[in-house]
Design a protein that fits this description.
The protein is mainly β and 462 residues long.
């Protein structure tokens, strides 16, 4: 199913046919520059550069899907994408479908200094005596079939984004771009501006679903945005659904699932279990732009991991800088602002934030207690006196503009015994909670979807 499309994403298409000179410095985090794709007609000798060996044969099934059952097959697939990019085939579009049929270990197959990764580039070539970077976007389907790719040691801090794919994108006239049912393990990713285990940048109606970043993975940027799944989600209806991060994430903007995202990006039922550290750090997404009028969504996401702010920074359980819509999210981990930073159980009061809760621990010199409409809080706030904490623990009543928030005090045990869930369920239109196996209320997978009919359709189809 194609997601709805918005005209701002058309701006990205212009970038997809431009040849860029290799950058010598580290640009500031800028959405309009985040998904640039190098595209040019290289000299005839470019495809014959060192390392561009003849592509081994790849096996395709009757549906035209490349079946990858070994490291050699993966290398051949990577080489195919590189050769097509350098030859200008597809005008910046890598329209191939692939499926894993076995676990793949790339530790002996792709050297750390190889440019076969990220898939799609950037590849450095010499054209008219000048070094250029060429890049193409993956716009097919990559089906992990429940398998694992391991052994990636990738450092693109001198040339661009880091991830299994550099850029994942979908055109209006191409089938749905999708990466799904895949785990990445025993790997490290370091990028210049954007880094994610699965994609440095993802955009334009693409879907990443059931993607898992294992505990043995680290994702880092020298500056910019780092995410356990995606570094940067540029404008254009990206959906991250049922993705999980267990890895270690660090960067200027660091998120367990995504580092930064623009309008019309959606994170649904994603969980973080890993350690996230940054100047701006969050369990799910560090920066989510938008106007809060339903042009972006963080729904039913849970943070179980440890989120740490660097000195003087910001740590949040779900989202650090939010300009979109957040509903039915829960922090169940440690949010640590340190001695000089800020710490928020869920996030700062930006955008539209309702119906979320905290069962975790918030630690800083000045911890912030989450008190938004239809929210609940049975967490631990280090630094607050028992008397101060007792005044705010419990269920938060409806909060309207200019109206004081009312509380129904509840003991901490109310989360596990179901009594908190019962109170939430009785609260009208925002009572879409059920008792979760985790010992606290979770989204009931029904409420809050009225403004997202495409998401309703997607969830009901399964």
């Amino acid at each position: 199913m194609l997601l709805k499309k918005k005209w701002p994403a058309l701006l990205l298409i212009v970038c997809l046919v431009v040849c860029l000179a290799a950058c010598s410095g580290s640009p500031e985090l800028a959405p309009e520059e985040g998904a640039a794709v190098a595209q040019s007609e290289p000299e005839e000798s470019a495809a014959a550069e060192e390392g561009a060996e003849e592509t081994p044969s790849l096996s395709q099934n009757e549906a035209g899907v490349y079946e990858i059952d070994s490291a050699a097959d993966f290398v051949a697939f990577a080489q195919l994408l590189k050769e097509e990019t350098l030859a200008g085939i597809g005008e910046g579009r890598l329209m191939h479908d692939a499926a894993l049929t076995a676990d793949i270990d790339l530790s002996e197959a792709i050297a750390q200094d190889s440019d076969l990764l990220p898939l799609g580039g950037p590849y450095t070539v010499e054209i008219d005596g000048e070094e250029r970077q060429m890049q193409a976007a993956f716009c097919g389907e990559f089906n992990g079939n429940g398998h694992t790719i391991s052994g990636i040691q990738l450092d693109t801090s001198e040339r661009g984004d880091a991830g299994l794919f550099s850029l994942v994108y979908n055109w209006d006239d191409t089938p749905q771009t999708k990466i799904h049912d895949l785990t990445i393990a025993d790997s490290s990713f370091m990028g210049l501006r954007y880094a994610g285990a699965f994609a440095g940048t993802a955009s334009r109606n693409a879907i990443l679903e059931n993607c898992v970043t294992a505990e043995s993975v680290s994702v880092t940027t020298t500056e910019g945005a780092a995410g356990g799944i995606v570094g940067y989600a540029s404008d254009g209806d990206l959906l991250l659904r049922a993705c999980e991060n267990y890895g270690t994430i660090s960067g200027e903007w660091a998120g367990g699932i995504a580092g930064a995202a623009e309008s019309y990006s959606y994170l649904v039922q994603c969980n973080n279990y890993g350690v996230v550290t940054g100047e701006n750090a969050a369990g799910i997404i560090a920066r989510h732009a938008g106007s809060s009028y339903y042009d972006g969504l963080v729904l039913a996401c849970i943070n179980y991991g440890t989120v740490k702010a660097e000195e003087g920074g910001l740590a949040c359980g779900i989202v650090a800088a939010n300009g979109s819509t957040l509903r039915y999210c829960v922090n169940a981990g440690l949010v640590d602002g340190g001695e000089t930073g800020e710490a928020y159980a869920v996030g700062k009061k930006d955008g539209s934030m309702y119906c979320s809760g905290n069962i975790g621990t918030v630690s800083s010199s000045n911890p912030y207690v989450y008190q938004y409409g239809f929210s609940w809080d049975l967490g631990t706030y280090e630094g607050l006196s028992e008397e101060a904490l007792a005044g705010v623990q419990g269920y938060t009543g409806k909060a309207l503009m200019g109206v004081d928030i009312e509380f129904t005090p509840l003991p901490v045990s109310a989360a596990a015994d179901g009594s908190l869930t019962a109170v939430l369920q009785g609260n009208g239109e925002y009572g879409y909670w059920q008792q979760g196996n985790e010992g606290f209320p979770v989204w009931d997978e029904q409420g809050g979807l009225d403004d997202y009919p495409w998401l309703q359709e997607l969830l009901s189809a399964e």
